[in-house]
Write a structure and sequence with these properties.
about 325 residues; D-amino Acid Aminotransferase, Chain A, domain 1; D-amino Acid Aminotransferase, Chain A, domain 2; 8-stranded mixed beta sheet; 9 helices
Length: about 325
């Protein structure tokens, strides 16, 4: 039997300025907490490298946005920052990484509506090591399948109570989709809408790239690289990683675009990735068994974008 990964918990508690460290090996959540009974809450997952949390402000901003969508009152940013610092420092002290290359941690922020009848949320920071599977998929790439999400691309605007743009704790459908993919021999999923639009992965944002060569008018060749992601108004979660990478890619001379995208666009792309804060940039090798792009071009673009992404803080 393998031992569980070491976890550090820090609860946001008004009586503790820097958060209250709790024993992760003992029960900490009430059985009547609505996060457990109803999946009623929001969360964020971030990557800490060498003790520094990446894109912290973007994740805090999205946590606030998700909480507002659920009418949740949450602690202020300063308490979150101090509690995150406590959790990361505690984990690195108790469980030092074997090497600098392994010094990566998952930092998860969780807010539930709290114990039924209490009227106040339950909030904590969870810090744990990055899993080996996610690290491996950055290098080897992934095979995905397309799955119908069961709604059209206009549902977010038409039915805001479905919380399509919020990062909620209600992840049962996303996890079921991943289990289904694994049973089909795939690693991951790209959701599509009932009207044929590409949406997102269960835990990631979809990116694709096109490389075009043309005459530069001076006897040379001009190379245009374009990075595209699905439209944000199609009922997907705004990706903090996608947003940060787009900003870096624009500075590096890439053209940028937002769908709408259809499955055929993925099949015709020079490269496709699923991007997320923890796994980072995972190249898509096959979609529904069909090879994507050209391996040499995909490898080159992945290396270039990964270098840009590595410089984001």
């Amino acid at each position: 039997m393998t031992s569980a990964a070491p976890v550090v918990l820090v609860f946001l508690d008004p009586a503790f300025q820097n958060g209250r460290v709790a024993d992760a090996s003992k029960p900490q959540l009430m059985a009547t907490d609505q996060g457990a009974t109803r999946g009623d809450g929001v969360f964020e997952s971030m990557l800490a490298v060498g003790g520094a949390v990446r894109k912290l402000q973007a994740h805090l901003d999205r946590l606030v946005s998700s909480a507002q969508a659920l009418d949740l009152d949450i602690p202020g940013e300063d308490l979150w920052r101090r509690s995150i610092e406590t959790g990361v420092a505690e984990h690195r002290s108790q469980h030092p990484a074997p090497s600098p290359a392994d010094d990566e941690l998952v930092v998860k922020l969780v807010v539930t509506r709290g114990v039924e009848g209490a009227g106040s949320p339950t909030c904590w920071v969870q810090v744990s090591p990055v899993g080996a599977v996610g690290r491996r998929q950055r290098e080897t790439g992934i095979d995905v399948i397309l799955l119908d999400r069961g709604h059209d691309s206009g549902v977010a605007e038409r039915a805001p109570w479905l919380l399509m743009g919020a990062k909620t704790l209600s992840y049962a459908v996303n996890m079921a989709a991943l289990r289904y993919a694994h049973k089909q021999g795939a690693d991951d999923v790209i959701f599509t809408s009932s009207d044929g639009r590409v949406l997102e992965g269960p835990t990631s944002t979809v990116l694709l790239a096109h490389v075009e060569k043309s005459d530069d008018g001076a006897g040379g060749v001009r190379t245009t690289r374009r990075l595209v992601t699905p439209r944000l108004d199609s009922g997907i979660l705004p990706g903090t990683s996608q947003g940060a990478l787009f900003a870096a890619a624009k500075t590096a001379g890439w053209e940028l675009g937002y769908g709408p995208l259809e499955p055929q666009d993925l099949l015709e792309a020079d490269a496709v990735w699923l991007i997320s804060s923890i796994r980072l940039l995972a190249p898509v090798n096959h979609i529904d068994g069909k090879e994507i792009g050209t391996p040499a071009i995909q490898k080159q673009l992945t290396a270039e974008l990964s270098e840009l992404f590595a410089g984001i803080q």
